[in-house]
Amino acid sequence: MENLKVVVIGAGMGGLSAAIALRQAGYDIEVYDRVRELRPAGAAISIWSNGVKVLNYLGLHAQISKVGGQMNRMAYHRHTGEKLTDFSLQPLIEQVGERPYPVARADLQRMLLDAFGEEKVHLGARCIAVEQDDHQATAIFEDGSRASGDLLVAADGTHSIIRNIVVGREIERQYVGYVNWNGLVPATPDLAPWDSWVTYVGEGKRASLMPVGTNLTGTDPNRFYYFFDVPLPKGSVGQPNGYREELSHFFQGWAEPVQTLIQRLDPEKTARVEIHDVEPLPTLVRGRIALLGDAGHATAPDLGQGGCQAMEDAVVLANYLKTTNISVGDALKRYEAARLDRVAEVVTRARKRSDITHGKDPAATQAWYADLAQEDGSSIIAAIRRTILAGPLG
Q: Residue 70 phi/psi, 5° resolution?
């Protein structure tokens, strides 16, 4: 289909990836976001090889390889420090044809904004409703203004208001059961090897360090993305001035690198997040409106696939619009058919992985620790490989 006008609601990872892919397909794109200043949510994100392949498809290989961390190995330790497993990710890279790149969210967002054009994003535009007819879909904003196009891409995140309209009922986010603290620290050898993703596990908790590269301007050195997970009741409260004390309490007796990390992190630059997901939806499309990214499949981060799935959405949507000439509605239904089971499987597996990691069934968690002690990397790599190769770019 030619000469389409597309309205994209949301300038996050999914919305910007879709905007770039759709513009490369030759369409007229308008992007709107409710915020007045674009600030990424969270410190960093793991872009596994399926997501990197989408960035390559969008022409961003040089940029992601510059700012992404060189994650060559993966290791698990008991919370007291003993090594459970440590293995190279090179077999995975060879099997799937691309390496993973953990990246600071600010660098990823800057990369996508530069590719699309930050000046072309309309900020301070809070979408409060959408409507459509046989010919167009329209976003209605809080200030009374409207934006219409041949289709509307709802990439308005995990708190999406458009999701409820598409599905036809109120969709509640569900608390996964744990709190996550995350941020960035300089990469130093007393914390972890510079090229290894290292995770300490025990007591249903996690403390993890993942390599992130230098920033786009080269002004920040190599960094580690760190995160801590603790199962806690929903509604627990924490303030930055208490994060260090809070983490010292929850991780008392853990290995020395964990203690060093707690003392070295900057509480004011540490995020504290209650982790939620959304049960797999029955539909991603209503007429000329399509859900994309967290709006359509908000997932726990335990597979590292949330951002990757949003980027997969973008390339699949663009390809069906380019290759289907019956109608916009037909192209969107093909998009839905291609994505619905894929994203549902990721959401479900991430929730199951979260339950095991965070002690929902203590016996299952202890069995996982025992399995890790026997792991040579092959089972973990096989599971990651299946997820990656099931993507639209293989």
A: -85, 80
In 3D space, the residue among 280, 300, 298, 308 whose CA is nearest the CA of residue 388 turns out to be 308
**First vs last C-alpha separation in the chain:** 25
Domain boundaries, the chain: 5-69+105-173+278-358
pTM for the full predicted model: 0.95
| Distance of alpha carbon 68 from alpha carbon 80, whole angstroms | 30
Distance CA 275, CA 242 (A): 20
Q: pLDDT (tens digit, 9 = 90+) per residue, 203-246?
A: 999 999 999 987 666 666 789 999 999 999 999 888 889 999 99
The model's confidence at residue 37, banded by pLDDT at 50, 70 and 90, is: confident
Q: What's the pLDDT at 38?
A: 78
Sheet containing 146-149: give its strands across: 127-132, 137-141, 146-149
Phi, then psi, of 200 in degrees rounded to 5: -100, 130
pLDDT at residue 13, rounded to an integer: 94
| pLDDT digit string, tens, across residues 43-67 | 899 999 999 999 999 999 999 998 8
Fold of 5-69+105-173+278-358: FAD/NAD(P)-binding domain (3.50.50)
Residues sharing a CB contact under 8 Å with residue 243, sequence separation 6 or more, in sequence order? 181, 265, 267, 270, 272
Q: What is the mean pLDDT of residues 24-52?
A: 91
Rounded Cα–Cα distance for residues 62 and 67 (Å) = 9
**The pair of three-digit structure tokens given for residue 56, joined into one six-digit string:** 């390559």
* 334-362: pLDDT as tens digits: 999 999 999 999 999 999 999 999 999 99
Measure the CA–CA gap between 363 and 359, rounded to whole angstroms.
8
Q: Does the pLDDT value for residue 96 go beyond 90?
A: yes
